[in-house]
Amino acid sequence: MMRWIAALAFATLLGATPARADLVLSQVVVDLAASGPPRADIEAWNTGAERMYVVAEPAEIVDPGTPRERRVASVDPAASGLLVTPQKLILEPGERRLLRIAVIGARRARDRIYRVTVKPVAGEISAAGSALKLLVGYDMLVIVRPPVLAGTITATRAATALVLANTGSTNVELYEGRQCDAAGKDCRTLPPRRLYAGADWTQTIDPDRPVDYRVKTGTSVETRRF
Hints:
Blueprint: E1 3-10, E2 17-21, E3 23-25, E4 29-32, E5 39-46, E6 52-62, E7 70-73, H1 77-80, E8 82-85, E9 88-91, E10 96-103, E11 112-121, E12 131-144, E13 153-158, E14 161-166, E15 172-179, E16 188-190, E17 193-195, E18 200-204, E19 212-217, E20 220-225
Parallel strand pairs: 2-12, 4-12
Antiparallel strand pairs: 1-12, 3-5, 5-10, 6-7, 6-9, 6-11, 8-10, 11-12, 13-14, 14-18, 15-16, 15-17, 15-19, 19-20
């Protein structure tokens, strides 16, 4: 899924010999509901043939899904509300280790959204000629839900535009979207979207047909027509 497209690549010379170290995570979306444990353990696995040095770098996403969105490094867990431990680890070939992600302090009335970058960092390269080391990491999505979940979606249609706005307290997933004719046939598939609290989304639609989406709020799923 969010296999982070970090081309943390070193010394790319023509005819270089690649040395690859593979990092695998057990999950890339962590959803911490108020009704469940305030923590999750993520397994990091080195599937490569050489030692791997890994760092975990948490950051809070402020105003997610809006033009004001920004990423703020999470240096102090007491201030950011999220603890990630350990933030540095060594994985031998085939070794598995756990990363713990935990909520710190009281939850807010609205989601807090984080990204935790988990990536290998360069070690030594041993090769007879020039070498290239390809390092691939992940940008995990971490959601800290509020005590009360309200994924309130409002819709505004204007000609060929549909604006969906989340005026609630938590993000929702919109998927299996489609527009069909009156007989429920000749359907057009619409794109999926995670819509964060306080954000809106505009897409182009057929003005003469209804829009149907499956809407997931936490573990609750319903079908909505807009």
